[in-house]
Design brief:
alpha+beta; Beta-Lactamase; 2 domains; 10 helices
Length: 276
């Protein structure tokens, strides 16, 4: 039997007990999820919060005034339009209210990110009579997203703008997953062409087997250095020094490879070794 059916079929006293039990389970579930609840009466501007909502905003249970204007004052001034515009849109268009913004916590002035969702309820004439919803503190997620963006910007700075050719390689398939502009310039292949290629495609045919063997026997977790021959798109042979190391990209094990063209150096050394 559903909870609603149980309420309808129970005696009045039992109905009250079932209702209290259902409300308790709901509050426990919301508390476990760290969610606060809110109700708003548009006519009186009276706001009702549960204890979790008050904690999120830095109030002791039962100490929030209940005035909408006092909650608005908690929202960081630059973000107030986000909450207000979302509220007006939800009220006028009869859609879900959803806004994410910063508040200044009442207890200590700390800036916290919150997300609030809710809905309006209307009378027979379509006038809003009540709104209710939930709120959650999203500060940790927003900080993690910001840290991830900084990390990505640093990676782009080190990879994309590096004057040395660099590639990201799948160690299992030997396919190129990413290359920087310097690699495109040195080898003559477009980035799109690189992403259809494997490391085999940059080697002269007679070097491919040795390269495959090196992949099979490489020690995971460390950096490796070696001198190899590479072939450009127009068929030129370059002597290059390669440094590769293991890392993860989006959770996937990859090799990051940097390439230094040492053709001139090796030719000069060969000339010195040759008898005059």
């Amino acid at each position: 039997m559903s909870e609603r059916s149980a309420l309808e079929s129970a005696a009045p006293k039992t109905q009250s007990a079932v209702k209290r039990s259902a409300e308790l389970r709901l509050q426990l579930a919301l508390a476990a999820a760290g969610l606060g609840t809110w109700d708003w009466d548009p006519g009186t501007d009276l706001v009702t919060w549960n204890d979790a909502h008050e904690r999120i905003c830095g109030f002791l249970p039962g100490t929030f005034s209940g005035r909408g204007e006092d909650y608005l004052a908690l929202i960081v001034p630059e973000d107030r339009h986000l909450a207000d515009e979302a509220l007006q849109r939800a009220k006028e268009d009869h859609v879900e209210y959803h806004a994410e913004y910063r508040i200044r916590r009442h207890s200590d002035g700390a800036i916290r990110w919150v997300v609030s969702r809710g809905a309006f309820f209307y009378d027979n004439l379509g006038r809003p009579t009540w709104a209710a919803g939930i709120i959650a503190d999203t500060t940790e997620r927003k900080e993690a997203e910001a840290a991830s963006r900084v990390k990505e910007q640093r990676r782009q700075l080190l990879f994309e703008r590096n004057p040395l050719p660099m590639m990201v390689v799948d160690p299992d398939t030997r396919r190129y997953l990413e290359v920087n502009d310097a690699a495109v310039a040195q080898y003559g292949f477009t980035r799109e062409q690189f992403l259809t290629m494997r490391t085999d495609d940059l080697r002269p045919p007679e070097d491919v087997e040795r390269m495959i063997s090196a992949f099979r026997t490489r020690a995971p977790g460390g950096a490796e250095r070696g001198v190899w021959r590479h072939r450009t798109k127009d068929g030129r042979i370059l002597i290059v020094e390669i440094v590769s190391h293991d890392t993860k990209l989006d959770g996937q094990p990859v090799l990051v490879v940097s390439v230094l063209d040492v053709t001139a150096r090796e030719m000069a050394l060969e000339a010195l070794r040759s008898p005059s």
